Give the backbone structure.
Amino acid sequence: MLSNETYSLDLPFGCGPWPCLNKNNICPFSSEFVIKHCNRAYKQIISASFSCPHCGFTYIKRYYPKDIENKSRYFIADHGELWREKVNGLLRENKSILFISKFVGSDMETINKFRDNINYQDEKGLAGRPGHALNDLKKELVDLLQSQLKGKNRKQIKIFFGFSKYDKLMKHERVWMEEMLPPRKINLIKKINYKEHDEETYPLIEQVAKQIYLENPPVRITKTMILKRVSSFELARLNGRNKHKFVRINQTLEVYSEKIDDFLIRIFPIVINRFEQSEKYKTLNWGLIIHKLHSGYKGASPKTKEWVIGKIEEYNSCTKRM
Ligand SMILES: [Zn+2]
């Protein structure tokens, strides 16, 4: 090049803003240019990650100065919290995986994985059973609390109203129930009724566990994590010598404590992010993941390893010129 020649390089991806690529029905700013910052990674191939400030949807694009075709390709690094809330809500409404997949614009496997993590079997069974609608039950209870059950304690209310109806409301409308019912009698001398406590508390544990899954923490979701969130008393109780007496609580904790493979799949976006953020690592592969990015993947089952390798291919295929 001659010294009197000049040239300029495009800033990869330009100066922004960039669009949120979350599909319709989820982000109110879908397709709008709301992303003002991106993280560019200068590796063998320049890439950048874009995260929507409204819904958390995060995608990664590769920089090809002259390749128009690849410009539209992207890799989904994280679906974001709005997506998780939406899918969670639709699963609760008992919508089919196919319906949800179309509604939120994600493939069915992704929805299935998400559902398996949060485990909706319980709600599903209940929705299929005939019974009182929650709103009717609530209305019935409110009427009774203002008439025959005025001034009665919780035990009397439960007996009069009916155990199954009471438990159902406790399970699905815990917060509402705590507001409606008279305060729990606190009697430190009285010994705890294990069975009663077990029945009353496990729905709360379930609710808390689901909330934690929605928050999507970067660490594995354990029994201790769930119990700590419920209360320090609960944690102490479930570690005490009578812990085996809380059968339903233990079952619930068992269902919601995260299996290693579920955890590794859930946090894969974090691994991608670590790779993207690092200047040193140039190529994403299995060896790099287990040795440098997240040693937890050494414990992956063959099936999960296969899933991860598929994801790596998907990620790397964005970089290939077609
Ligand atoms: Zn968005």
Remarks:
- Residues 120-131 have pLDDT under 50 and may be disordered.
- The longest strand covers residues 46-51.
- The radius of gyration is 25 Å.
- Residues 134-254 form one domain.
